[in-house]
Amino acid sequence: MKSWKKVLTVGAVLATTLIVTGCSSSRSTSSDKSTDKKEKLVYISMPTEAEERWVKDGNELKKQIKKSGYKVDLTFAQDKVEQQNSDIENAVNKGAAIIVVAAKDGSAVGPAVEKARDAGVKVISYDRLILDTKAVDYYVTFQLEKTGVWEANYLIEKLGLDKGKKGPFNVELFTGSADDNNAKYFFKGAWELLQPYFESGALVSPSGKVTKNFKLENWQDISIDSWKMEKAQSEMESRLAKYNGGKTHLDAVLSPYDGISKGVINAIEGQGMPWKPGTDQWPYITGQDAMVTALSDILDGKQGETVWKDTRALATKVAEVCVTILDGKKVKTTETMNNNKFDVPSILLDSKSVTKNGASDAKDTISVKDVVDSGYVTAEKVGLK
């Protein structure tokens, strides 16, 4: 009897020991996973913090990824290729699991991301496609050509070209930075709609920058380096010299970005042209990014339209891609974009056109108030009463 009691006692002790050990092991594994998650680093490299758009993008993306419990480093390259390449190499040295890159120069960043890829780092191209390398895992952006389509359609409708008006209307066209692959696609979307009107003579460019023989491949001839407002202003001032102090009327300006639009507006006002904002004399001016200054200018009648790409949606989608990769799951892509080396798995989001009052018959053309109501910007900042 005593021997049985000893056996039972020893068995109970062993069972208890196994249970405790098992629980401890389970807790340890769970803790290890949590620790591993916290140690995984996502490195974000934005091109500049001198522009409102990239600061918003960077901060929103950082916030979204941190929500999932991962470490995040955010850097800005100050519009310098060398700085961005150095930042990416630094990310590799810090053991980043993922590097998200909004490239200053889509081609020049290639060698840096190749080093990252060789080190086993996943590379996500953010908004601007990284070119001429296979070291890109995913590309997330908005429908690029659609931006140009929005802008061109706005001008076509405002000038009455869709209603058969023959003009000729005087217009000036701008494209974005020559080192940004997106700029070509923005212009492609617009040029496919505007080119027939140049060929027919309904649209003309008094500056001579764009003629009826202008081709898509010439888009860099009308580009604004680094998308800079100051450079756009200087270029527009030069073009306005052909307008005889305002005796030749400017009907419209195709601008692919709000910063360029502001430069155009500054040039018109600075040259003392006799065209009053908010009247039929003021030219129709497009833009992109729904910057605070642009939304204010739309309300004031200085800018007619901007394309709104909600950076919150872009940041959310990129954060989802990062978390999916870090969790060891498969990323679902919808399309591909060719970067001159291969078809990069891509996710393309939708944008909207913004005018002062929107359009009741077009759900994707919204008002400044709609942008404010979405929480993207405050009424106070844009001057909406």
Task: Give the secondary structure arrangement, pairings included.
Blueprint: H1 2-39, E1 41-46, H2 52-67, E2 71-76, H3 81-93, E3 98-101, H4 110-118, E4 122-126, E5 138-142, H5 144-159, E6 169-173, H6 181-200, E7 203-204, H7 229-240, E8 252-254, H8 258-270, E9 284-285, H9 292-299, E10 306-308, H10 311-326, E11 335-338, E12 343-349, E13 352-355, E14 365-367, H11 368-373, H12 379-382
Parallel strand pairs: 1-2, 1-3, 3-4, 4-5, 5-12, 6-7, 6-8, 8-9, 13-14
Antiparallel strand pairs: 10-13, 11-12
Helix pairs in contact: 2-10, 3-4, 5-6, 7-8
Give structural notes.
With 385 residues, the chain is of the alpha/beta class. Helix content is 44%, strand content 15%. A hairpin with a 4-residue loop joins strand 11 (335-338) and strand 12. The longest helix is centred in the N-terminal third of the chain and has 38 residues, at 2-39. It is globular. Its main location: other. It comes from Pseudolactococcus piscium. Keywords: Signal.
Gist of the model:
The relative contact order is 0.11. The chain has helices spanning 2-39, 52-67, 81-93, 110-118, 144-159, 181-200, 229-240, 258-270, 292-299, 311-326, 368-373, 379-382, and strands spanning 41-46, 71-76, 98-101, 122-126, 138-142, 169-173, 203-204, 252-254, 284-285, 306-308, 335-338, 343-349, 352-355, 365-367.
Coarse shape: globular
Number of domain modules: 2
Instruction: Give the class from helix and strand content and strand pairing.
Output: alpha/beta
- Which quaternary structure do these chains form? single chain
Number of strands: 14
